């Protein structure tokens, strides 16, 4: 896992949650983001900030938003593809 | 003559403007009226071939990205003489199952990649499976008084209720004369209402009869919404207050061109006056309009053009409907006295499907109980006041706290649970749960994970507080005001929440 990318995404989750989710906790989590406390509103904020910063498309209903490792994998895959 | 059935409306529009775009789903596709009609007839053949009979209930389970297939399936079901039951895809599988069971749906037509809960005899199909080679028009045997759709809502009490509407009800007020169509000032009408909600269904009817093409993103986010307004120069935009607030807070209106918007409509719950004022500033060329109705009362509604001199008013009844406020004994109250709000539909009224008891409570002599408390001012404008109830409004949705409590009680480690609405800056209200565990060690994360399979996303408690006991009064009733204080204290003491 790209740790710098993961750290940045954890910060974005923290921001999107309105500061309620600790970035360190998110970094090490495997549970669904929703279970951790990311609300529907937090989810759509996360989509906007991630899409804007990484120029990827996120689907609010797809598995790549289910938990933090999936999010990192999805963004990592797309940003690497763009560079190649 | 104006058609009085939904398939009749589609036939007329397809004849008038076959090549015109009816629906655009951003990034997914477009549908013309000719395509809409041809595909609906093809799918209706598929339904009839599978044995669908007039009056059968057919569940429709689609996500926002599949609005086009949903529109086709909706009309196909009605062309076959059956009843469309749009089910919100966000519901938990158990809830979908319950609704389909309640209305006795014999089949479910569904969107891409959606898993339909197993239902014994019930068959499932995607629209593509239904659309065969047969494209001759189906001989639709459907009349204005036939049941056209059932929509589920939390109603005014708690258990979800199916609200049935006839074709006459759905087509009431539709304008089919080309030079008189609604929203003629716009080429595109943008919204992001979910399929299976009354607001979403209203947009589907708009797609059929209004001038602009209906434009929708697969899902709402402020950035996507703003980009669509700018890219399509959308003239008409519909939101719910929670979307409006989130949009304004995101500042997107300052980054994209909003000058095309001439009508900004808000539905589902009252726009807070401060938000109306901010919207008026963010959309400089738009008239901001608040619509107030309910799944039960539609097409009865009040319409209010935002008026800074009367900021909280929801307006007067439109289109020949009526409005009244009643006291404890059902007596009509004079202006300024707070009571139950009722509306009378100018069209054939809706009713609860298979629920006589609830019908008697909510529908009386043509009047529909709105489940809100309010009063009329001297000019007959409606104003709402807060009520402490078991049904709260979170964003666009009515949410039953009792239902979420029931889901919590299914967890083996939950001894007691209470769920209540707490104020939220964007959504108006969100749920919070206070739980007494059977033994130590149950966490909020675990309980939320447990609830994720049992309740819809918007029903998930934003906060879960674990306590030793629930505060109860002498008759054993949980005192929600004390719970609210507990939650406030916990917030101050623990900024991480639980």
From TrEMBL, chain A:
Q: Which SUPFAM superfamilies match?
A: ACP-like
Q: Which residues form the signal peptide?
A: none
InterPro entries tied to this protein: ACP-like_sf, PP-bd_ACP
Q: Pfam family of this protein, just one?
A: PP-binding
Query: Carrier domain: which residues?
Result: 3-82
What is the protein's given name? Acyl carrier protein
Task: Write the lineage as a comma-separated list.
Answer: Bacteria, Bacillati, Actinomycetota, Actinomycetes, Streptosporangiales
Automatic annotation (TrEMBL), chain B:
Q: Name any one Pfam family assigned in the record.
A: AMP-binding
- Which parts of the sequence belong to the AMP-binding enzyme C-terminal domain? 403-477
Keywords tagged on the record: Ligase
What GO annotations for molecular function exist for this entry? Answer: acid-thiol ligase activity
Domain AMP-dependent synthetase/ligase, by residue range, is 13-353
Q: What's this protein's name? A: Acyl-CoA synthetase (AMP-forming)/AMP-acid ligase II
Does this UniProt record's set of keywords contain Iron? no
């Amino acid at each position: 896992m790209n740790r710098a990318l993961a750290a940045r995404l954890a910060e974005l989750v923290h921001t999107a949650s309105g500061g309620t989710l600790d970035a360190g906790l998110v970094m090490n989590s495997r549970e669904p983001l929703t279970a951790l406390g990311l609300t529907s509103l937090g989810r759509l904020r996360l989509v906007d900030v991630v899409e804007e910063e990484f120029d990827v498309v996120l689907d609010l209903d797809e598995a790549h938003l289910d938990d933090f490792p999936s999010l990192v994998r999805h963004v990592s895959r797309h940003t690497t593809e763009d560079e190649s | 003559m104006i058609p009085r059935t939904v398939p009749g409306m589609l036939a007329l529009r397809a004849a008038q403007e076959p090549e015109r775009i009816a629906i655009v789903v951003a990034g997914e596709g477009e549908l013309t009226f000719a395509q809409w009609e041809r595909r609906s007839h093809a799918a209706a053949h598929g339904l009839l071939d599978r044995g669908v009979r007039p009056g059968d209930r057919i569940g429709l389970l689609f996500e926002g990205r599949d609005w086009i297939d949903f529109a086709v399936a909706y009309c196909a079901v009605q062309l076959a003489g059956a009843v469309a039951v749009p089910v919100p895809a966000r519901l938990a599988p158990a809830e979908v199952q319950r609704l389909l069971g309640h209305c006795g749906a014999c089949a479910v037509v569904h969107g891409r990649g959606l898993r339909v809960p197993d239902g014994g005899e019930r068959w499932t199909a995607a629209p593509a499976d239904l659309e065969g080679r047969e494209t001759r028009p189906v001989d639709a045997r459907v009349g204005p008084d036939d049941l056209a759709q059932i929509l589920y809502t939390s109603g005014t009490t708690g258990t979800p209720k199916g609200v049935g509407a006839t074709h006459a009800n759905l087509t009431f007020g539709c304008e089919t004369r080309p030079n008189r169509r609604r929203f003629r000032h716009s080429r595109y009408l943008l919204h992001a209402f979910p399929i299976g909600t009354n607001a979403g269904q209203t947009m589907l009817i708009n797609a059929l009869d209004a001038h602009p093409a209906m434009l929708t993103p697969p899902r709402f986010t402020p950035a996507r919404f703003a980009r669509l307004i700018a890219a399509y120069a959308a003239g008409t935009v519909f939101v719910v207050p929670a979307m409006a607030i989130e949009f304004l807070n995101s500042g997107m209106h300052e980054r994209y061109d909003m000058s095309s918007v001439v009508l900004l409509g808000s539905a589902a719950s009252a726009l807070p006056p401060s938000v109306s004022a901010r919207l008026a500033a963010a959309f400089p060329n738009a008239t901001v309009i608040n619509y107030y109705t309910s799944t039960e009362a539609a097409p009865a509604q009040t319409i209010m053009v935002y008026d800074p001199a009367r900021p909280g008013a929801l307006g007067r009844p439109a289109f020949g409907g009526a409005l009244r406020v009643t006291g404890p004994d059902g007596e009509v109250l004079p202006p300024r006295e707070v009571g139950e709000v009722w509306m009378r539909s100018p069209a054939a009224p809706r009713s609860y499907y298979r629920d006589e008891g609830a019908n008697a409570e909510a529908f009386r002599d043509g009047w529909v109980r709105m489940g809100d408390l309010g009063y009329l001012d001297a000019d007959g404008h409606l104003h709402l006041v807060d009520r402490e109830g078991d049904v709260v409004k979170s964003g666009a949705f009515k949410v039953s706290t009792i239902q979420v409590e029931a889901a919590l009680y299914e967890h083996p480690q939950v001894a007691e649970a209470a769920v209540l609405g707490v104020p939220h800056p964007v959504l108006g209200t969100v749920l919070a749960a206070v739980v007494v565990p059977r033994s130590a060690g149950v966490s909020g994360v675990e309980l939320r994970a447990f609830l994720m399979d049992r309740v819809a996303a918007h029903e998930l408690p934003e906060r879960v507080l674990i306590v030793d006991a629930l505060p109860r009064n002498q008759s054993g009733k949980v005192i929600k005001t004390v719970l609210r204080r507990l939650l406030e204290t916990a917030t101050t003491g623990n900024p991480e929440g639980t």
